[in-house]
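Tokens as discussed.
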């Protein structure tokens, strides 16, 4: 079934509802979806072309409804390059948000910190990225109906949205670090030598998601804001083991503040 058919299927269920803001929920942050009001939930499994996630902590649901008084479309579950799935999956997810009516995309993720002063449980505003993930979902013939062949990434993480997020964090008295996201393929965590190298290259936090989503979103003209929940100090910076269980545990620990920040941000968004 084509992308258009899937969109049609979603629109039939939406009954006139038009989302303005897209939200992607990272590992252990899925509970944010529980705070969406008057919601319609659609399982990715029932949406032809939608990717079915293979990672625990990522449930695979499109949730439409109101959050902080605004109409949102929320992706509860994402795909990662390390799953070895086709890049079509991330394109379908992001372009669906655009086609349903979203103009802004708020991405959340869990990341490791390269800065000892930004520890597990902290929130970090992503200011930019360094792409160390091989490939790019936009390789191949350009799909002109979504965006141009060549497009800039100098404002990938929208400056005005970042300013707004900082104001919201101040209003809510939530500490918010800032930094450059270093995107790796995974699925293994890094070696201490890699982390030292990433630090020299300009990274402040490291993770295995987000970059492909930002690339597809910027191609189709979505404004992007991204916030990381720090789940661990990166390899070599702490004696605590880096495990997926710890990622989920600290992701959940940071989720109350993440919920407050994203809620306040969407409330303040004009
Ligand atoms: N490295 C890569 N991805 C991650 C990490 C990390 O240390 N923590 C959470 N996601």
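Sequence:
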């Amino acid at each position: 079934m084509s992308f258009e058919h899937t969109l049609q299927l979603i629109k039939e269920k939406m009954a006139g509802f038009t989302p303005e803001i897209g939200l992607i929920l990272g590992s252990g942050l899925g509970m944010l979806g529980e705070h969406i009001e008057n919601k319609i939930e659609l399982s990715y499994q029932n949406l032809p072309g939608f990717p079915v996630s293979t990672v625990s902590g990522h449930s695979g649901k499109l949730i439409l409804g109101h959050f902080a008084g605004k109409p949102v479309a929320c992706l509860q579950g994402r795909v990662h390059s390390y799953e070895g799935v086709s890049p079509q999956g991330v394109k379908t997810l992001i372009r669906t948000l655009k086609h349903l009516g979203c103009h802004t995309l708020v991405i959340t993720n869990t990341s490791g910190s390269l800065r000892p002063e930004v520890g597990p449980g902290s929130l970090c505003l992503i200011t930019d990225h360094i792409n160390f993930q091989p490939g790019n979902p936009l390789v191949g013939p350009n799909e002109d109906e979504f965006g141009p062949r060549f497009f800039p990434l100098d404002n990938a993480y929208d400056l005005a949205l970042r300013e707004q997020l900082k104001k919201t964090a101040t209003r809510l008295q939530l500490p918010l670090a800032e930094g450059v996201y270093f995107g790796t393929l995974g699925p293994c965590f890094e070696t201490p030598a890699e982390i030292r190298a990433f630090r020299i290259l300009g990274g402040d936090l490291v993770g295995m998601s987000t970059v492909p989503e930002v690339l597809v979103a910027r191609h189709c003209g979505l404004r992007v804001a991204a916030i990381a929940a720090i789940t661990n100090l990166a390899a070599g910076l702490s004696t605590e083991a880096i495990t997926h269980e710890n990622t989920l545990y600290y992701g959940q620990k940071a989720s109350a503040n993440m919920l407050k920040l994203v809620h306040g941000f969407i409330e303040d968004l004009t």
